[in-house]
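Side project, low priority. Logging it here so it doesn't get lost.
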Amino acid sequence: MSIQGQAKKSSHVKVATASLIGTAIEWYDFFLYGTAAALIFNKLFFPTFDPWIGTLLAFATYALGFVARPLGGVVFGHYGDTIGRKTMLYLTLAIMGVATAVIGLLPTYATLGAWAAILLVVCRLVQGFGLGGEWGGAVLMAVEHAPEDRRGFYGSWPQLGAPLGLVLGTLVFSIFSATMSDAQFLAWGWRLPFLFSIVLVIVGLWIRFTLAESPEFQKVKDAKQEATMPIIDAIRMYPKNILLAMGARFAENGFFYIYATFVLAYATQALGMNRQAILNGVLIAAAIETFTIPAYGALSDRLGRRPVYVFGAVFSALMSFPLFMLLGTKNPQLAWIAIVLGLAVGHAAMYGPQASFFSELFGTKVRYSGVSLGYNLASIFAGALSPLIATSLMAAYKPETWPISVYMIVLAVITVVSVYFASETRERPATGKLAAPA
């Protein structure tokens, strides 16, 4: 390999790594809330309700973070397409870190009554706003720096931020939970994982300051061809692609939060399983997914984005009934198998090629806005609602779980249909306008 080739490889590896680290920190902040919502927020912020109703309310505040994400996507997408990808990555990381640290300082219901829950909701909305702008910038930096024949692989690196953030958040939560009594943890120990976010954000900001701007966007900027209203242009030029990207996310996003949050509440409250045992299962699955996500991303460079994505959705649908059968045994090892298969196989097959797939659906001038709209709008109807809907179905039909399985299959069908009607994007050249308008 020539010196110039080595320099280019070093550059896109560095960018992909930096995108991964920053994204992992932001997902740590976001997932930490989900773990707390599943296990303790019902006791701290909604203690006057029945446990299942308290959990339902906790998941409702969790869902509000997703509602704020499209707004963050619109705002940061606009400036990411007019000012640049890099600057937005600083802002989104700082916003997420501050909101997470404030959650660690909030008074609970015992101190402030209903106002405690209101403040919790405000912090969650700020979290969602920051994360809504994060994903688009991180994946575009990786995809737009990558070689044309490796966009699936390098685009999957910032996707690793989700399972790594989940691992880190679950691990930190588990350590504090396991080393304290329940009384200590509920009194003050739960705050420490949220405050730890301050350290991670400082590290992430330092790493992101070393990045160069996306070369594709830089070409647009040098030619002074930036879109004046990229959000409007994205909707006008790519309405079909935005809708298909939304539909493609339903199974990926919905299934992930069922496995990562609802399963925690179901296993501990409905089945009486040990909290740490289920946390360990999620931890193992997310750790394995850090290997399977890039593997599926690389596979999409060979086979195409669509076949790999569809496989993930179909496999996830097939796991919807076995999931509850394995959990119902109350055997921790069998529960781990169910969670690992759901996350490390089904979810990873969709999440691995997703960054390159969605990026290739839009032209450079409006790409940040386009991917942010498709990605974040879907999260309202998929990830935000899936734990909430699953918990509602559990409360309405308990001890039956088949309605939840049917709901999961519906999510998968929406994704399969959407990917079927989307164009294969693997062969499109990265010339600054990857996609033709739909």
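Brief comment: The CA atoms of residues 92 and 130 lie 5 Å apart.
Revisit when time allows.
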